[in-house]
Amino acid sequence: MRMFNDKKRWFPIGIFLSLRIALKNLFRPTITIRYPHERAHIPERARWAVEINYAADGSHLCAACKLCEKECPNNLIEIDVETAEDRSKQIKHWYYRRAGCMMCGLCVEACSFDAIKMGHDYELAHVDPDMMEFDLLTDVPAYKRPRPARPAAVQTGTQTGAPATTQAREATDA
User: Fold this and answer.
1) Which H helix or E strand runs over 18?
2) Beta 116-118 vs 50-52: how paired, if at all?
3) Which residue, 79, 69, 95, 97, is CA-closest to 142?
4) Is the pLDDT of residue 109 over 90?
5) Structure confidence at residue 1 as a pLDDT band (50, 70, 90)
6) What is the pTM of this model?
7) SS3 state of residue 137
8) CA–CA gap between residue 136 and residue 131 (Å, rounded)
9) Does the structure show a pLDDT above 50 at 37?
10) Reduced to 3 states, what is the DSSP secondary structure of residue 168?
11) Does 75 score more than 90 pLDDT?
């Protein structure tokens, strides 16, 4: 039992174990990349900074519902919306502060219009702190989702074989 407590005998064994690990790593293939010349492969589901999603015609899909603003745990999204008399919305500013974003994706999940998405650019460092605040939309009308066409029976107010008004329904019930 004295051999296990003797530090002088374990010292050479420790050196040989360290050398064995160093030699094993010396002949291993490298896993680093030459960053400016090579870019790392990022998985498709990786979450980075928030970006605006655009439709096929180039228009944005934001309806100014402010669900993403309410869902953001760090309160980094601010949407300034102005409502006109005809109840149409005008997005004055859609601010996003990327410096405090933890890339959780809750704002993207909350958006029912698919107006925002998580981007794939991972080069997010800037020297100037003003470069970390973005105005993603400025002075644009809010997106109006096209409504599906109503069937002809519903548009005229009558259904086939059914009374049109509640008074007619009550008359048929009596």
Assistant:
1) helix 7-26
2) antiparallel
3) 79
4) yes
5) very low
6) 0.63
7) strand
8) 13
9) yes
10) helix
11) yes
**Helix (H), strand (E) at residue 50:** strand 50-52
Q: Which of 125, 113, 112, 114 is nearest to 48 (CA)?
A: 125
| 139-154 as b/e: b if 16+ CB within 10 A | eeebbeeeeeeeeeee
> How far does CA 142 lie from the centroid of its chain?
19
DSSP string, 83-125: E-TTS-EEEEEEEEEGGG-----HHHHH-TT--EEE-------
State how far the Cα of 27 lies from the Cα of 40, in Å rounded to an integer: 23
The neighbouring-strand residues paired with 162 are 159
Q: Decide: 111 and 70 in contact? Cβ < 8 Å.
A: no
Residue whose structure tokens are 């100037």: 128
CB 116 within 8 A of CB 68: yes
Residue listed under structure tokens 């096209």 = 146
Tokens standing for residue 51: 């970006």
Give residue 21's pLDDT band: very low, low, confident or very high (50, 70, 90). very high
Q: Which domains are assigned to the chain?
A: 50-141 (3.30.70.3270)
Q: How far apart are CA 149 and CA 1, in angstroms?
A: 89
Q: Which residues fall within 8 angstroms of residue 65, CB to CB, at 6 or more apart? A: 112, 113
Output the six-digit token pair for 173. 């019930």
Structure tokens that stand for 71 in this block: 């869902």
